[in-house]
Amino acid sequence: MDLREISTPALAYLGDCVLELCVRKHLIEQGFATSRSLNAEALRFVRASSQAEAMKHILPALTETETAYFRRGRNIGHTNVPKSATVSEYRAATGMEVLFGYLHLSDQAERIEELFRIGYINIKPE
Fold first, then answer.
1. What is the pTM of this model?
2. What Rg do the C-alpha atoms of the chain give, in angstroms?
3. Domain 6-120: homologous superfamily in CATH
């Protein structure tokens, strides 16, 4: 499969799932055990504003190819920006999703974990 031929929305769709799995794994490793606490804590990670903040930490660590996938997602035309995010935050979040979708399809599980840790290193459990 040629990853360059996969649509940007499809990569973002998959990347959203990959990020959700990273968050869930992280929260379980942190000791969260009830669905209520897991869901409440997960929201802190998956909001567009949180993903945009995480990308500020991740960007310096990206390779040229990874940066290209992030930009590909960031530059997609957005028509439905949620009220809880700015256009800039939503674009960065979509770029992050595309990046993680690309990494998943290219079988880079260790890199996914590494970038997730870099991005969310400063988020502490509440």
1. 0.90
2. 14
3. Ribonuclease III domain (1.10.1520.10)
